[in-house]
Every structure is written in structure tokens, then in C-alpha cells.
């Protein structure tokens, strides 16, 4: 999830100072279970490795809740806040971090602003077009997992497929929230099958 920058026109140094201040103010606010703490230990080394692999500016992580129900929020100055609900397993956390780092690699803060200006005031058009960008970010997340975690394509795509099916199950059960910026889960699965034909037989299709 992409967020508007907190730092405004503070510049790079001001943004870094603001990020440090936020960390100091919010440190210790999120209470993690021992299992979550174990999963969280590998988070910062992973995003550091992604930034090094792709030659981007470094990113700082923080655990915190999200009003919009997203797994992570990347701010333009490089602060990535992770919802504790994603700390259930190393695989799910890595996938979410790979997605957010893919936004970072792609420069999606600027891409999103440009699309917003281009489509204003038609929010429906914005969402329709941004959904395609979110899927492209997922595709890049697959590459990130392959290059940084050294998993094969089947494993990386399989993680994404399981996430899509989990989202669909929660929506059907009434425990999930529809995100207008993303395609419906079954459409994502259809696009995934098209983009990775070698994995098609492994990816069970569905209907939204």
C-alpha cells in the first residue's frame, strides 16, 4: 500500500529525522507474541538485502496497525509499517515485504501521483487502472523472492496464489475487506495463470 509522504517538503534529511522521531515515539507500541518476534527478526535483514540487490535507498521497518486493513504501508521517505497480522509465518511476511519493496523499486509513489492527476476527478478510472499496477507489483514481488530468497518460480508464485485464495476465503466468510485498489482475488489468479504459464497446472482457478 502506498501512502502520502509525511515529510512534505522537509527534504531528505528532514524526512530521515521525521522517520527517526516516529520510531522513537511508537517504539514498543506493538506487543508481539514470542512466535511473532521470531518471524519479525528476519524482516529488516530481508528488506536490506532487497535494497542492496536492486540498488534502492534503504527502508526502515516498524510494526503497527493499519486503519485501512492493509498488510503494509510504505511511506515515501522509506518507512515501511507492517501490520502484526502478517507475522504468522516467515513465508507470508516475506511475500508482503516483497510486494512493498516492489513498490519501492518501481517508484510507485510518483507513478501513483501521476495517475491520480491524470484521472482526476474520476476515482473509478483511477482504481481501474491502478489495479493493473498492483498486479504488476505482485509480479515483481515474485522476482524479488527468486533473486533475494533464492526460491524457485513455483514456490514464489505458489505463495502469491495461496495469498489470493486466502483473501477470497475471508471475503466469502465476511471477515475480509475488499480493497478497491486491487483486482478481485479470482481475477488475480486468472492473471497469474496467464503470466506464469509454466505454473498454470498448479494454480487452481476460481470465480469471484
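-> sequence recovered:
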Amino acid at each position: 500500500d502506498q501512502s502520502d509522504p509525511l515529510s512534505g517538503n522537509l527534504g531528505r534529511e528532514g524526512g530521515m529525522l521525521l522517520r527517526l522521531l516516529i520510531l522513537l515515539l511508537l517504539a514498543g507500541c506493538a506487543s508481539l507474541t514470542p512466535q511473532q518476534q521470531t518471524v519479525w527478526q528476519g524482516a529488516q535483514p530481508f528488506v536490506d538485502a532487497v535494497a542492496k540487490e536492486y540498488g534502492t535507498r534503504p527502508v526502515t521497518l516498524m510494526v503497527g496497525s493499519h486503519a485501512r486493513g492493509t498488510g503494509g504501508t510504505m511511506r515515501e521517505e522509506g518507512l515501511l509499517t507492517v501490520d502484526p497480522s502478517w507475522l504468522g509465518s516467515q513465508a507470508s511476511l516475506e511475500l508482503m515485504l516483497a510486494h512493498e519493496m516492489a513498490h519501492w523499486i518501481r517508484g510507485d509513489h510518483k507513478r501513483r501521483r501521476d495517475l491520480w492527476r491524470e484521472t482526476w476527478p474520476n476515482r473509478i478510472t483511477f482504481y481501474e487502472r491502478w489495479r493493473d499496477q498492483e498486479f504488476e507489483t505482485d509480479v515483481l514481488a515474485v522476482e524479488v523472492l527468486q533473486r533475494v530468497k533464492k526460491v524457485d518460480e513455483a514456490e514464489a508464485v505458489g505463495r502469491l496464489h495461496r495469498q489470493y485464495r486466502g483473501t477470497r476465503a475471508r471475503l466469502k466468510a465476511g471477515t475480509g475487506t475488499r480493497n478497491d485498489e486491487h483486482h478481485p482475488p479470482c481475477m488475480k489468479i486468472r492473471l497469474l495463470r496467464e503470466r506464469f504459464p509454466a505454473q498454470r497446472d498448479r494454480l487452481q482457478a476460481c470465480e469471484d
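The beta strands are 60-63, 72-74, 79-82.
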